[in-house]
Design goal:
This protein is of the alpha/beta class. The protein has a single domain (3-237), classed as Alpha-Beta Barrel (TIM Barrel), CATH 3.20.20.70. 49% of the residues lie in helices and 12% in strands. It is built from 14 helices and 8 strands. It has helices at 3-12, 32-45, 64-78, 93-102, 123-136, 147-150, 156-165, 180-189, 201-210, 224-235, 239-248, 250-257, 263-271, 288-300, and strands spanning 15-19, 49-52, 84-87, 110-114, 141-145, 170-175, 195-198, 214-217. The chain has an 8-stranded parallel β-sheet with strand order 7-6-5-4-3-2-1-8, with helices on both faces.
């Protein structure tokens, strides 16, 4: 990438990205009409970019054909009005690189690729995995560190090594380690071109005050206007205004994940009339007690459902 292209890419991944859920019908088929409504809602509400086929999309339960159809639907519906980031990852490096080399990425602006899960590679293994991805991908790469799901943490040292050695391709990290010291280390020592994105809604505000450029959000599925406003206020230095919105959502941050993601946000979206409260096994809907607590919070926020 040229310096101009890098600057354009950094602008595209600034602000609030939303990790789209995959709506299902009662028979567990993909509800493409509901997905269309959700995409339209995001565009109308000021979301900065969309992330397709991430963890929140229940991607491991989707067939290859379903993944292709979802991607095409989002790309066509967005019609260049928002940047689109596509989740492309796995614990088989060769399979990931072959997909990057041979897949159709029309309409996609960047890829998001998580640290390999289950295998529990060493830091050198993680480095070599991303090195292969950087060499295979035609698009900018956003690293994704989420040890709570993958079973292994990518250290700040490894992240910085990748950022420094592949400046033309590796442009950012979605950091969901929950370790503020680690995130601070990355922000403090990163190359100028490299961006840090919060991978947790609850960390978005504090991380932006430290120098992050935004968040890839789950709660943004349901509250894109409100949460994107919080992110923009924080990025513009209005910490008091951003903090006020952040504190309004702190109860929901916990409720969204207490029964697993995306069970919480799907329950909320169902109450708001966007889709059925349906997940694919091994994930199941959130508990009744959690749902009742969500209703109480939504009432406090004056949300109609």
């Amino acid at each position: 990438m040229t310096a101009t292209t890098k600057k354009q890419m950094n602008t595209k991944i600034t602000g609030m990205g939303v990790a789209l859920v995959t709506p299902f019908k009662d028979d567990e088929s993909v509800d493409y009409e509901a997905l269309t409504r959700l995409v339209d809602y995001q565009i109308k509400s000021g979301t900065d970019y969309l992330v397709v086929l991430g963890t929140t999309a229940e991607t491991p339960t989707l067939t290859a054909q379903e993944q292709d159809e979802i991607t095409k639907l989002v790309v066509n519906r967005v019609n260049n009005r928002l940047p689109i980031v596509l989740g492309v990852g796995g614990n088989n490096t060769r399979a990931v690189t072959e997909r990057l080399q041979n897949g159709n990425f029309n309409g996609i602006d960047a890829i998001l690729s998580s640290v390999p899960y289950y295998n529990k590679p060493s830091q050198e293994g993680i480095y070599q995995h991303y090195r292969a991805i950087a060499q295979a991908s035609k698009l900018p790469v956003i690293l994704y560190n989420v040890p709570g799901r993958t079973g292994v943490n990518m250290t700040a040292e490894t992240t910085l090594r990748l950022a420094a050695e592949f400046p033309e391709k590796i442009v950012a990290i979605k950091e969901a380690s929950g370790n503020l010291n680690q995130m601070n280390d990355i922000i403090k020592n990163k190359p100028k071109h490299f961006q840090v994105i919060s991978g947790d809604d609850s960390f978005a505000f504090p991380l932006i005050t430290m120098g992050a450029v935004g968040v890839i959000s789950v709660i943004g599925n349901a509250f894109p206007a409100e949460f994107s406003k919080m992110v923009r206020l924080a990025l513009n230095g209005d910490y008091a205004g951003a903090r006020e919105i952040h504190l309004r959502f702190t109860e929901l941050f916990d409720l969204l994940f207490v029964d697993g993601n995306p069970a919480g946000v799907k329950c909320m979206l169902s109450m708001m009339g966007f889709m059925e409260n349906k997940l694919r096994l091994p994930l199941v809907p959130t508990r009744i007690t959690t749902k009742d607590k969500m209703k109480d919070v939504l009432d406090k926020l004056n949300v109609k459902y």
